[in-house]
Amino acid sequence: MLKVRVANNAGFCFGVKRAVDAAVNNAMCNTYMLGDITHNRAVIDRLKLLGLKTVTSVDELPSGDGTGGVIIRSHGADKKTYDFLRQKGFRVIDATCPFVAKIHDIVSKHYMAGYHIVIIGEAAHPEVQATDGWCDNTATIIDLDSDLSELEAYDKLCVVCQTTYDGKKFEKLSEKINKIHSKTVEIFDTICYTTYERQKEAVFLAKSSDTILVVGDRASSNTNKLFDLCAAVNPNTYFVQSVGDLKDINFPRSGVVGIVAGASTPTESIMEVKTYMGQEFGEASNEEFLEAINKGTVAIREGKAITGTVLSANADGIRVNVGVKNDGFIDKTEVCDDGEYNPEDFPAGMEITAIVTKKRDDVSGCVLLSKRRADLMRKTDEAVDQIRNGEMFEMVVKKDIKGGLIGSLGTYRVFVPASQIRLKFVPDLKKFVGKTLKLRALDIDDINRKIVASQRVILQEEKEEKDKKAEIFWENVKPDVVVAGEVKRISTYGAFVSVDGIDCLAHIDHLSYSHIDSPDEVLEIGKTYDFLVLKADREKQRVSLGYRELQPHPFEKCMEKHPVGSIIPGKVISVLPYGAFVEIEPGVEGLVHVSEAAAAYVKDITEVLHPGDAVTVKVLAYDEQHRKTTLSIRACLDEGTVAVKTAKPAKKPVEESGVYTDKAENTVLADLLRQVGDDNQDKKD
Description:
With 685 residues, the protein is an alpha/beta fold.
């Protein structure tokens, strides 16, 4: 007996399903499909039966009156098409796949930034043509065999890829582009994740099956790729567009038959192939498979939401026709969450959705249902509706399994493949259990209430944004440029400042003109200040900033506050053989030459001045150009000022003739020295 295996990733992908649903929900006589919604003739024919019309270009549309609608298919459209439709008054129903829309955004932004756009894909494919329209149709479209030499003419390249392109071919082309082009190149891997998984699973199934069936329309690009991949590893690979094609295949009487299907293949086509194989070769139909793919068949399973019609309602509860032999019954306690059940609110014929709590009640024989649980499920699943267009959501990881992480969003089970957790390989999944991940949905399976999500795509976007900011940063941050930065943290040797997300260092020596013990004496964590770029080394990723360089120099204030001739207090900072440096304002020091340190000649200045001494000095001169100040202690002695208050322990008072005291010692000594000097001068005269 033949055994039939069906690929998990078979049938409509998220983008195609979304587009087909949009077409069905908007079916009316004045709604048009701009191009085939999907590359499958059976699907298009069914949509036409609903009243939808297909036009190949906007030129075929009638004049808009504000009521007509135009459906943009999952492949998207160029910018001019959107502008034209809105200008003509059409209602635009945008069913562009979110992953395709992301490519359009990348192309538009980079084209505006001066990049030449390169699209890897099939030039005739509608998705590629639509993408080209977001750069005024100037893109270079390449395939594996294309000549890439013309790309050398461009300084900046932005490379994107058709979402359904072959992953291995994309990698080879990326390597080629990086080798031949030494200028700015940004390559975006925009192949849809589900395409990767579908292709990977198809190859695995082809290798492990005796015969492989590829179900879909030959007009479908991604289905043709699946066929090529399977045929490369299994010679018994057949393209199946309809059940009629199966009659020409010489199947063995035993073994394994694998079934794969493209993203544009409806589930009904897969079901027909599966059923045919069961009837012809005795392979029993898989109930779960049929339930998952055939929406028209009602299958009763506990925990499943089903919709039925009210037959009657009384004080005990509601009897419901659910499309099977036995009626459904909703007990009064399972009708409303608040317990306020009123039978009159549920007339016969009313549609009602409920959760199956028991397939068959032993007493009544009814299918037991809960409307209360269905209402709660609908509320919690509103979060799922909010992420269908690629919005980010958060999830707490509940457990790790082989190949990924598991969590939930509402009543949907969320699976994050190991390859979609980080940008690099994650060897240990257990460390993520209990952690919150930022995710974006890659695929939403509403039938089985499953979501495949990725944190990697968000991290990749953040990295790309960070790289862009870094590029702008290094292009603009040069020495002598003033930048605004936020103080993030402080250490003993300086402050770390964030400038456009890049860490820079403002050394403590460049924070204040006066001595400080810690940067927080000048800067406060969390506040933003202006800094002067002192050094910028892109190779070493280091930037040195200065804060004091943008502040008024204390020398200028000192000149205004203490003009030449002023007598002011100061403090001896250091003593050298030729003089002493005295601080007269924070950050401003002046030189007292040894000849100006006392009233008479001093051989060793350390005999009269010491670091830490409080002194009184007179400003003799300023050198504004070199920011130097000349001071004098002797000039203050001439004016009878107590000029020096030593920092050393005071000596005992000298009791000679009762003249000296502690307080006047220096002044009297100076007077005596001056008197001796005058006597010597008289003798010379």
